[in-house]
Amino acid sequence: MDTAKQTLGSSRLEFLVTPALVDIVMHGKFAMLSADQPSTGLQPFIVPSGDTAELRNQQTTFFTLHGERTSMTAADSAMLNKLKPRAPMDGTEAPDQFKRMALLIFVLFGPGHVLFIAYDAFVLNLAQEQSQLHRYKKLHPIDRLLFWVRLMKRNALQLSSWFEEVSLSSGPLSPVRDFTKVFDQIRDEESWEPKVSTTLLEALKISALTSLGQPSLAGSSLSGMTGSMTNDSTISGETSVGTPRPAPAEGNDRVTKVDFLPMFIKFKQDRSKTQEIRKSILRNEKPPLPKSKVSPADDMCLAWHTNGGCNKNCNLHKDHVKYTKAAAEPLHQWCVTNWTLLATN
Fold first, then answer.
1. 63-96 per-position pLDDT tens digit
2. CA nearest 142: which of 191, 97, 209?
3. Contact 63, 70 (CB under 8 A)
4. Residue 153's closest CA among 216, 240, 249?
């Protein structure tokens, strides 16, 4: 985990390995038991912020009392570590929980896995869309109280449904969910919010919100929904708070590069926007990009290769094809020489 934090530029982000998380990983319990059980499944509710200093003090006390060579049992660890699934209540906690989830996926599946590539794209987009999300919360003050809970639940359901499909399939890997689509839906005022039940609120220790004079919060129960997480209506269905928004437009313009090359990982993690880099090329501040192997008259698509995805209507869409490491090396060398990395924390 420490190595992953350094690789992804999140070395200052604390990550507490709880007994519940160990149990989930060791026994492959990746799918949630139900939509309202945030203590189950491999999803961002299970990696909240915690008081690292307090936990270390408790562990120090344990070894002082029992000796440094004493093995800590699972029961001891569970007793000391009180970290539980918790609702992200502000714009600092939530992004950190999503980052921890990306770290966990990186460790478990590797940097080249389609799930990490898709989820990491969500984390990067989340950082870039903060101003848009802030505007949304100002326009929808009723939603503001539970905005991060809704976004995290949607994210958790998408992960859980994919894990469940994979566990039930003996064929090729199921297509990974497009975690970034939610930002387009928010921007276009489309429906994206999963319903929030009193069961979930109580599990997250925020059931007091149901008494704020908003009966729709308490009346949006999903408590009867167990088992399969594959119902898309639970992910982007009608909002339970305020006026329902128009139905989502069909289709999605973003295409994910499933064969992302790890050689571009540090550029993918950087906060620089490829659009701004291309503008600097047009201003002759940087040299031209290498030419595409499939369309020699055009440049290679910087976003496709370094971000792990691009818009299907991109002017360089012909370059949205699979590249071998050798074929992509000219672009890699261009990035090493001309890409000015920004801080990723």
1. 666 666 666 565 555 555 555 677 776 677 889 9
2. 209
3. yes
4. 240
